[in-house]
Amino acid sequence: MSPARWGSAMALTRTRTWGLTFITMVFAALLLWMGSATSSAATSTQLLRPNGDISSQWNVCCGVKTAWDALNDNVTQAQGRIPSEDFIHTRALSKVTEVALSSVTLGTSTPSAGKAWFYMDTGAGQSVRADVIWGGSVRGTTTVPGGSGYAWRSISVVPPDQASLDDLRIRFTVTSAGSGSADVFATYFELTTTSGAAPAPPPPPPPQRTLTVTPPTGSGSGTITSTGINCPGDCSETYADGTAVTLSANPAAGSTFGGWSGACSGTGSCQVTMNADKTVSGSFSASGGFTHDTVIDQLGPGQENQVYEDFHGVWQSQSGTFVCQVDAQPEQSCNTPVGPDFPTWYTIKYNGLAPGDHTFKVTAIEAGVRDPSPAKRVLNIPATPSYTLSAGAFVPASVNPGGTATATVTIVPSNGYSYTGVLFLVCTPTSTPALPCIATPVTMNNGSGTGRVVVGTSSQTPIGTYSFSISGADGNGLKPSNGAQSFSLVVTSSPITAFKPNIGRGGRAVAISMQAGKRVAIAAAESGGRDSRVGGKDRSGAE
């Protein structure tokens, strides 16, 4: 404290309490000095090299005369490998070298840690024990095994109770002889000292407290917020012990706040002091309402992986809407009325549903408030529906030009498919020239059904074989599993024979055979039983 400050203090204490004030100032100064002394503790590290007092039974190599010259190199382990220019070495068993290290004036400092470093290698089969001697006793030891390469080794030691630097040495002893030699290139000691008292540790941080908000419950919706909290979503936060936290309830449109529970109560603001982990809950109630819950009235039959759903609801206002959902698919608007005669009935169609059970849900929304109990119903899509189609032969199998033939077509449901309604048949001519055909619809009633294919000809229809293909399709485009079926009809002409008795001389009978598109063949038989043919002409030359 400077004289000026002392003089100022004297001037301020010229009162009846001068003695008490002076004592107070002295005590405060003493505390300040003690705190300064406590906080001024520091550590330092010094490197102690060989001091020339080396007792060596090892040999000296390579341009130097003493072990001190060989080992007192200005190197450290931080350099890694060092040049192998000069060193001490030996091959003999039990040879010892002791290296005394430089002393240092400690003053008010105290040794707190030490580490001996040395750079060496050993020959094959030859091991060396290294000891650190401090205060007359061995404070640390290590053994370098045979065949170890060039490397830095270290021995960490704890200073003796009587902290001093008397007789600090490193001793190397050959403990097993091998085929090579042990070589030491450099050694030094790393001394750490502490001056003054260690600084006082910083005070521990205040404990942390966690506030957890349970996601809101109730028929309504809303959020609970505070610093670091926006629930649902982010529903917990950590605060320092003793922090005051205020939670706010924010009802959504069409909802009101129902009240707090847990660490808060009532319907006002929630204030908590975080002197422990705490939990708060809140609820919201729907402020609107519904005349009755939405009702799913009908589930349409599942066909071709699609389904129609009809449902109805009655609103308190005209602003109500519906959203529909199947399983976990996203919700979608479903406000299409069934028809003008049913203003409160609505319908929706889903495609691509896999066979099996599906949950259909309808949620009514009025004035922004969702129906708290949506209508639900489970529907089942059967396995992929299918049926087979078979076409019978035409009756008759062949017709003359101008004739008509009919084929029967049979429909058989399969794979659990049950269909009630009309299934349309499609007849397609497949030959050239084409002969038109007509297919009649098939009425199905949860079982098999039959239809007909009719083919009519005219007197001008050429003779030949005509092919047809028959297929079917229900109202949703379902095709037969066995594909279109093929069948054919033959158009032909039968021979026409005319008899006229007593034609020709001698009472001969003449038979005339006629076929369309061919010459007339005349056969004449005489009364005597003989037959006379003339290449399509009679004997008179008439055709």
The CATH architecture of the largest domain can be named as Sandwich
CATH superfamily of the largest domain: Galactose-binding domain-like
In the CATH hierarchy, what is the class of the largest domain? Mainly Beta
**What portion of residues is helical?**
under 10%
Cα separation of the termini = 163 Å
Sheet/helix structural class: mainly beta
Instruction: Assign an overall shape.
Output: elongated
Q: Note the main sheet.
A: 6 strands, antiparallel
Model regions low in confidence, pLDDT < 50 over at least 5 residues? 1-39, 299-305, 496-500, 513-521, 531-543
In total, how many domains does the architecture comprise? 6
Computed Rg: 58 Å
Number of strands: 41
- Mean pLDDT across residues: 75
Sheet-strand content, in percent, reads: over 45%
Total of helices:
3
Tell me the CATH topology of the largest domain: Jelly Rolls
How would you explain this protein's 3D organization?
This protein is mainly beta and 543 residues long. The protein is built from 3 helices and 41 strands. The strands form 9 sheets. Strands 1, 3, 4, 6, 9 and 11 form a 6-stranded antiparallel sheet that branches. It has a 5-stranded antiparallel sheet with strand order 2-5-10-7-8. Strands 22, 23, 26, 27 and 28 form a 5-stranded antiparallel sheet that branches. Helix content is 7%, strand content 49%. The longest helix has 22 residues, at 18-39. It has 6 domains: 3-40; 45-195, Jelly Rolls; 208-286; 295-381, Sandwich (Immunoglobulin-like); 386-491, Immunoglobulins (Immunoglobulin-like, Sandwich), CATH 2.60.40; 496-532, no CATH class. The chain is elongated and about 140 Å long.
